[in-house]
Amino acid sequence: MSEQTHANEHVAQTGGHGADPHGTGEGHADDNGALHIEKWEGIWIRVAIGMTVVFIAAITLAALSFGISVPGATARINPTTLTQEGNPFATPGIRELAPGKYEVYMVAQTWNFVPDRIEVPVGSEVTFYLTARDVIHGIKFADTNVNMMALPGQVSTLKATFDKPGTYNYICHEYCGYVAGAPIGHHTMYGQLVVLPADETAQAVTQ
Ligand code: CUA
Question: Is the CB of residue 78 less than 8 Å from the CB of residue 88?
């Protein structure tokens, strides 16, 4: 924009208004009632609206087409009843639902996970149900995107497929305390998920 046109615009704006009653000098209506928006401000408004539309579309697509969602509270549970008969957390561990499909009921407590070792064949789809017995814990499976909070009174759930054989440590990522002098505490709270390669799985089955 040349100096000349800019100067003319400025004259036109101030001329159209007389004194600017709001004193803001921008975004105000001209005599025709149309809102005046600077060129680059207008471009950025369109970019911001466009990005918001893209993000909402991406989240909707991920949720509806791929079933991707954030871990959520699926149920409430009284933490004092976890050991009672009939409570699914009374016997935490892994259960096979169908070939290649498992569910894991897991309890987080100071300072361990029960179970602290899980083995699944490669390619398995595992649904985790997690709750806490005492205080707030968290769980993060290293080298995966499996990451949940463990809250007393709440069941967190997440479904994950493990396609790469290996040992994945799961750690507590929410500070859950430490007693001075004790050998254990938050920093020792971890477990291991072992994803068995196909040949070892076949061996285990035939043995
Ligand atoms: Cu449990 Cu930190």
Answer: no
